[in-house]
Amino acid sequence: MLSGWTLTDLARALAAKEVAATDVVEHYLERIQAENGRLNAFLSISADEARAAAHRSDERRLHGEVLGTLDGIPLALKDNVCVQDGVTTAGSAILTKYRAPCDAGVVARLRAAGAVMLGKTNLDEFAMGSSTERSAFGVTRHPLDETRVPGGSSGGSAVAVAADLAPAALGSDTGGSIRQPAAFCGIVGFKPTYGMVSRSGLIAMASSFDQIGPMTKTVEDAALLFESIRGADPLDQTTTERQPSPFQPGMSLRGVRVGLPRQAWSAPGMTPSVKFACEQAVEALRALGAEVREVDLPYTDEALAVYYVLVPAEISANLARFDGIRYGERASATTLAETYAASRGAGLGDEVRRRILLGTYVLSKGYVDAYYRQARRVRRLIAKAYDQLLQEVDVLVTPTAPTTAFKIGEKMADPLAMYLEDVFTVGINVAGVPAISVPCGREESTGLPVGLQFIGRRFDDGRLLSIAHAYERE
Amino acid sequence: MSASLEDVRHMAKLAQLSLTDAEAERYAQELSAILAYVDRLQQVDTAQEQEGAVFSEVLPPDRDFARHDGEMRERIIQNFPDRLGDLLRVPGVFANRT
């Protein structure tokens, strides 16, 4: 009972009064108690608040005042999403005791829908990383093999869902941080069109790339959670009032035009077993009636370079506020300037400092034109290339990641090697289009999950989810 | 393009980061490798391209600034690393400078 249940299963059972919200929350609190010591998916658990919220949900249901489909359903949140009634660390030592003064926009929406917040999940510090090894609070372990990473930066959320410590979770995605851990852990991870979901209360990494999105067991669940969190928010001016295309669960793939970008499928560094599993999945799409063809996606190589210029630049601006003065850990030093430097030096981890330095460099006098401004111009070319290609086809399909989950410690020595893990995912954030990773089988030798990425048109989120759902149904 | 040790020290100063000598040397090497990779952007012809906003539409700002008293204010204040009553205590801007 309740084991492996989806959001849809839970909503049905709660509506049919087969189970109470208080029972549901106890079930997940017990799961967390049993497994989190080993997996380190959760950094904090709000047990009392969750029980109280579940109780209020049951009361509402008793009086016929149900708020919606998510009423009484527990969720996990990546720990860069601010909540008012607890600590938000962003995986960083500098925010070990930070208590946000208010809920993030998405949290406010989820609470208004009656959802129950279970706790906060582990991440690479400030969401910078592809393995969750960069957390100041220890790595999160892959549920199928504890010697392996779950991916990152939303590794904690991915494991929470994969190990059934929560039925669903929110992650954030700047260059693949929802999709890659979803692929590594064998779950669904969806990054909406930029601007669909409010970033208010998301501790900012790169403001023109970040998006919050659902990490779930099924595409149907991802669509449900997306519907609950999306929408224009006056507290985030980059949100859009445009409606996404609607989700159509029964949609057929007959006649849907699928493009396979040549540059992605022939990329060096992709393990043969990943390619094989993804090619099998493409055969399944063909069998479902999709029109599949190879396409040309220009500037694929340049997308990673654009990403590693613009994102560090935005990081260097967004992390300037962490100086030990108004919040966070303050190091003691003699002068004010030394206080800033010592607080940041001690409180910010290695990858964070590397990216701040890189960002400062590409924005500095003498280099800003050649790097930052040039990258902005190339970004426009890339966005246009995606838009144009997505007129010729309805969806692009690639493997989500070039490898399956690697061993803890394997990629830490070479930052560039870690960055290359993102080669299939960053272009999507550069262009701002939506993308979703769906499980497409296991690697034969290790049994590790492989993910297939579907990339859609800007604002066409519903149709993208429908296509992914059609594949998943098979 | 590569980053020299001097470049890294200068960037660290601009970014208010304290680094040990060993860290500065390591970052110089790592940044050089990354910059060598991103240098490929120089080959892209962007002469016809503008710089501006790529794809986001901007919502009109919420000009209705509300004054926050009571609980919100207290939640902000309780995060102060060093407080004197309701005041944030900081090292003096000009204090202890030689």
Write structural notes for this entry.
The complex is a heterodimer of chains A (474) and B (98). Chain A is of the alpha/beta class. Helices cover 40% and strands 13% of the residues of chain A. Chain A has 16 helices and eleven strands. In chain A, strands 1-3-2-4-6-5-10-11-9-7-8 form an eleven-stranded mixed beta sheet, sandwiched between helices. In chain A, helix 4 links the parallel strand 2 and strand 3. In chain A, helix 2 runs antiparallel to helix 3, helix 7 packs antiparallel against helix 16 and helix 10 crosses helix 12. In chain B, helix 1 crosses helix 2. Chain B is mainly α. Chain B is flat and about 55 Å long. Chain B has a two-stranded antiparallel ribbon. At the A-B interface, helix 10, helix 11, helix 12, helix 13 and helix 14 of A face helix 1, helix 2 and helix 3 of B.
How many DSSP-defined strands of chain B?
Answer: 2
Q: What order do the SSEs of chain A take from the amino end to the carboxyl end, as H and E?
A: HHEHEHEHEHEEHEHHEHHHHEHHEEH
Largest sheet of chain B: 2 strands, antiparallel
The whole-angstrom Rg of chain B is 23 Å
Task: Find the biggest chain interface.
Answer: A-B, 78 and 55 residues
Q: How far apart lie the N and C ends of chain B?
A: 36 Å
Strand content of chain B: under 5%
How far is it from the N-terminal to the C-terminal residue of chain A, by CA?
25 Å
Label the overall shape of chain B. Answer: flat
Comma- or semicolon-separated keywords:
A: 474 residues; alpha/beta; 16 helices; 40% helix; B: 98 residues; mainly alpha; two-stranded antiparallel sheet; 3 helices
Q: TL;DR of this structure?
A:
The complex is a heterodimer of chains A (474) and B (98). With 474 residues, chain A is an alpha/beta fold.
SSE inventory with pairings:
The complex is a heterodimer of chains A (474) and B (98).
Chain A: H1 7-15, H2 21-39, E1 42-45, H3 47-62, E2 74-78, H4 105-112, E3 116-121, H5 155-162, E4 168-173, H6 179-185, E5 188-191, E6 211-216, H7 219-229, E7 257-261, H8 262-265, H9 272-287, E8 291-295, H10 300-318, H11 336-347, H12 350-363, H13 369-392, E9 395-399, H14 415-419, H15 426-431, E10 435-442, E11 449-455, H16 461-473
Parallel strand pairs in A: 2-3, 2-4, 7-8, 7-9
Antiparallel strand pairs in A: 1-3, 4-6, 5-6, 5-10, 9-11, 10-11
Helix pairs in contact in A: 2-3, 7-16, 10-12, 10-13
Chain B: H1 5-14, H2 21-38, H3 70-77, E1 83-84, E2 87-88
Antiparallel strand pairs in B: 1-2
